[in-house]
Amino acid sequence: MHVVVVGSGMAGLTCALALQAGGADVTVLEGGQRLGGRARTVRSAFQHGRYVESGAEWIDTDHHRMRGLLDRYGLTLQGVGQEWTTIRRMLFRDGRMHAVDEIRSLDPSVDEQLGRLEDAFERIADGIDDPARPDLHPDAAHHDERSVADVAAEVDLGELASLFARRNSQGEFAAEQREVSSLFVAQQRAQMRVHGIEGTVRAHRLEGGLDGLVQRLAADLVPGTVRLGETVRRVQWDDDGVQVHTDLGVHVGAHVVLACSLVPLRSVQFTPELPVPLARAIRELGYGTVTKTALQFESRRWPEGYATTSLPAQRVYEPTVDQRDEESDSGVLMAYAGGDGGRKLAVLDEPARIAAVADDLRAMYDLTEAPIGAFSRAWSNEPRYGGSYAAYGPGQVTAHWDVLRRPCGPIRLAGEAVATWTGYLEGAVESGERAAGEILGTV
Ligand SMILES: Cc1cc2nc3c(=O)[nH]c(=O)nc-3n(C[C@H](O)[C@H](O)[C@H](O)COP(=O)(O)OP(=O)(O)OC[C@H]3O[C@@H](n4cnc5c(N)ncnc54)[C@H](O)[C@@H]3O)c2cc1C
């Protein structure tokens, strides 16, 4: 049995490995010239051996498939990790950096207000029996049509809590609160409950960079499996199989797994056309925007830990906090800008984005040194991604969740957008392994 897999991100690679382990003959078509997709470590922009993740960065406590892969390849997590908290962690406002304790004195009830918002999602999550089917919530239509902004308006947040809640949506979903379905947020909370994680999640970076994992996965594939520079333009299908057309030729298979963002699929021609609900879901599903901009300095002149700011940089942290050596005290500061702020930065070219973030960093940390390295990536500008990761918008869980996860003849979707762990590396792996299991008849 020959299977064509489109995309060499974590979903495509893990799908291809599982298919090959089950005896299938696999071709992976990758439009770009590198493997890994949104797992993309940047080294060349930096000095002193520092490296930074331009896409996925964190592996959470409950990401068991990812942790299983690290164990398989003897890879280790870095440092003590980071706790995911809504108040993250210092606050730069009115020209001054406030330490975490001072934030509470600015508004003593800020935790209680944010707790009310979180409780509202937890109550919706109570109605989700199976996080793989949030669309079966008894009141699904009602919660799905309400956005996170609608729920936030009801719990009545003060100015400070509103800023933290907005930054949380821009960071976690890469989208504004109005763009995210409250049922989608509740689905994510329900998913965490299944894994026994309620409240705080801890997350770690991969020691040595995520590209190390990508290389190991690729090395386990049968040689010649991946064909780089083959962008899929057309998929011709019937009950017997598929012909997948790229600029360089045609690949025939019994099945195709489309393991990529839905945005590039919008310009792939399907013959015959896909059924209307599936075509609509592919066309409409919401995607967040993240612009990550990182600047390296010769020495670390900033306090450790996340800082939230009302400036365009949104949230600033040091991704190199655990990269320490005798040779140099150099470190990198990263600005993670999502939603409207991410889109605003994305319209600038890379040097202008770096300059804009440099201004913010100077204001926040009184930095006087010039940076010695920098890069910025606006994921929404990249045609093979078209955004950062899926964010189901109001009405989209009930309309699209199930249809995106069902096979259509020989065509299956994989990738984070169609996983239970939507938006994560874990989801990419989950979806890739599921698609392979369905084809092999093992799930
Ligand atoms: C800024 C950012 C931060 C993130 N942070 C985290 C994090 O901290 N933790 C976490 O777990 N996840 C994070 N994620 C999400 C994570 O990166 C993704 O969930 C995961 O990498 C997606 O993998 P995938 O295989 O589904 O898709 P992709 O990685 O997008 O792979 C799809 C591949 O398909 C290729 N392709 C697309 N169209 C075509 C075509 N027509 N023909 C051929 N090839 C094509 C693409 O070039 C790409 O290589 C982040 C993502 C971003 C963008």
Point out poorly predicted stretches. Answer: none
Overall helicity: 25-40%
Principal-axes geometry comes out as globular
| Gap between N and C termini | 18 Å
Bound molecules: flavin-adenine dinucleotide
Mean pLDDT: 96
CATH C-level class of the domain at 2-38 and 208-286 and 393-440 is Alpha Beta
Major beta sheet, strand line-up: 8-7-17-18-19-16-20
Estimated radius of gyration: 22 Å
Total strand segments: 21
Q: In DSSP terms, counting alpha (H) and pi (I) runs of 4 or more, how many helices?
A: 15
Structural class of the helices, strands and pairings? Answer: alpha/beta
So, the CATH homologous superfamily of the domain at 2-38 and 208-286 and 393-440?
FAD/NAD(P)-binding domain
Largest sheet: 7 strands, mixed
CATH topology name of the domain at 2-38 and 208-286 and 393-440, in short, is FAD/NAD(P)-binding domain
**CATH architecture identity of the domain at 2-38 and 208-286 and 393-440:** 3-Layer(bba) Sandwich
What share of residues are in beta strands? 15-25%
